Amino acid sequence: MAILVVDDDPETRARLGRTLTESGDGWDVRHAASAKQALALVTDADVECVLLDYRLPDADGLTCLRELRRVRGDVPVVMVTGAGSEAVAVEAMKLGAADYVVKHATYAQVVPGLVREALGRRALARLGTDATGRGAVPSLDAATRARFEADGFVVRSPAMLRVLGLIARAAQSRATVLIEGESGTGKELCARALHTHGPRAARPFLAQNCAAVPEALLESELFGHARGAFTGADRARPGLFEQAEGGTLFLDEIGEASAAVQAKLLRVLQEREVRPVGATAARRVDVRLVSATNRDLRREIDAGHFRLDLLYRLRVFPIVVPPLRERREDVAPLAQHFLDRLARDEEKSLAGFHPETLALLERYAWPGNVRELENEVHRLVLCAEPDERIAPEALAPWIVDDLAASPATAAPLREIMRQVETVIIQSRLREHGYRRGATARSLGITRTSLWAKLRALGLVPPGSEEPT
Predict the structure, then answer these.
(1) What is the pTM of this model?
(2) Quick check: is 458 in a domain?
């Protein structure tokens, strides 16, 4: 596998070539001093990645990048820019560059990692993997599926099986991963699986919610501080990046990070080193960064709240976790999983769910996703009598109201209306002490009509006559 280094400075070419050769990846490093030479050499099928300097004697880097993409669109290109040229680097990413690195004193040390990540992304693309969760992802083998189940994943839907396939792939790489999805979809569970299914499993996994720490403290929490850095800093303290050495650091709600924290995160990802608050020297770190967000970071960038260059660094391998309403096949097994676990925790024996209860759970939209489902099942467990089977009328009023207001269309309308009417009538009967007259008035129907409804819905024995 050949790596092509394109730079007009022979000393720089030699330095990068030496770094790539000594990385231990077995690369064959080739050199070009101009755009013309680069275009001639890249036609060789052995060239698998290009390291391209922005300043060349016969063309600027962006022009050369366009031509390289035209000639060999499958070959990833890592752009090398000078200090203060971040805007050029971002433009290069828009034109199809796989990554970029800004020149600084030790930038050559991070180049092998960038090349590995670029080659890894291309390998995933060749396998037909779509990192957004769509597209062809090979099925998981039985052993891997069992490991995911042991991690707490209860999955039946194709959408989530694809997510697990992506996690299994990404776990084996060093690439930074951005997990996107609504609140309550299980993004931290996915982050932990990325760690436990990879080679860093024996090292620490640390998590930090960027929205849970005041802005003034988040920088110190992540990067540490030196003694005397601020009032009360009577001793030096390592940050989470240093504490997670060799392992994984998970940053949830990354969209909440301040501009100052974003700038330091970018430096860590580019240079693999952190500088504690108040310190004069940086420290090398080896940490796999996984982040998550429930925000649309593109909109945050348009609003000036998030850095585009940081997004490119974080989203080397994106994984989108679908909301629960888009994977309804998972609702019933998840509900049963939570019921078994929570009933055991509460030391209560229950007879499971009534089939109509599960049908209604599957039709509810679950705006709070898996977290909301778990909380609702916990409430049902607490309210249920021992050995009781969870009936539809036990569901929370807001679930019943939502189903009545906007019934799903996945089932025949007649079946949907029957289920909703059953829940509403049973709820009203309880509210009015099972007095049929008061219940009928609250529903806006006659007592005779209510009795007919009860018989039609199977809520009274067949052939029963209405009591006088």
Answers:
(1) 0.68
(2) no
